[in-house]
Amino acid sequence: MNRSYVMDRIAKSLCGLTLAFLANAGVAADMPNSGFFDDYDKLQSADASWISSIYLSDHFEKVLSTTQAIVVPQPEIFLASNSKYKGISPDEMKSLADSFQAVIIDALADKYQIAMSPGPNTIVLRMALTGVHLKKKGRKFYQYIPTAFVLSSLKRALFDDFAKKIQLTEVAWEAEILDGSNAEVLGQLVLQMGNQSEKKEFTSWDDLVTAMSVGGMRLRCRFDNASDGTDKDCFEITEADLPVQ
Questions:
Q1: E-strand spans in 76-226?
Q2: Which of helix, strand or coil describes residue 71?
Q3: Treating both helix axes as pointing N-terminal to C-terminal, what angle do 90-108 and 147-157 enclose, rounded to 10 degrees?
Q4: Are the C-beta atoms of 77 and 106 separated by less than 8 Å?
Q5: How far is it, in rounded angstroms, from Cα 215 to Cα 195?
Q6: Phi then psi dihedrals of residue 115, to 5 deg
Q7: What is the spatial distance between Cα 245 and Cα 127, in angstroms, rounded to a whole number?
């Protein structure tokens, strides 16, 4: 899939958990239920050609304005039952989860405190990659690299080396914000990416990382507005605003 086309769709639909996104939304139809959320019934669907939905509580802005720390647990990963490739080792699965956790933390940690456990004045950002469809390209890269290199560099090299061997073709990113003091669900987001049945519509690891990075920056923008009393347009944040790696 053309990268500029992917990012154009992300820029138009990945709302970064903003209320404005719901202005023309309708009830989500045919929303895949992975079981990650306890309740999918409150999700609203965007007017888009693929499934992308959101829910925000009436308490969202109020809780955000008093938040002092953010808990970002390691995301869960759900391989699709009909994925063409399912052979991910436990170490690879953990490295994937660690890497995607770091994408969100990197967007927040230089300004906001990252907590290890929930409590008063905290929020919890739960995430999952669901309906993950993979396609094997060749032998796993770590079979040809010394163990010490893999253990020390896998996280840094994951999206360069791992992606050369195992292709991501379709995935849904599900994210849920909870009040850390009472576990109330404050918001939910589902972003559907790719179509494993159509090669020209495959997504990729790079597309997913970029989408999550943009989402993290837009969430940070929402925190900035709540904590600083500003009114930035978080929709304006795109791939071009991401820090240069």
A1: 76-79, 113-115, 122-136, 166-179, 185-194
A2: strand
A3: 40
A4: no
A5: 21
A6: -95, 160
A7: 23
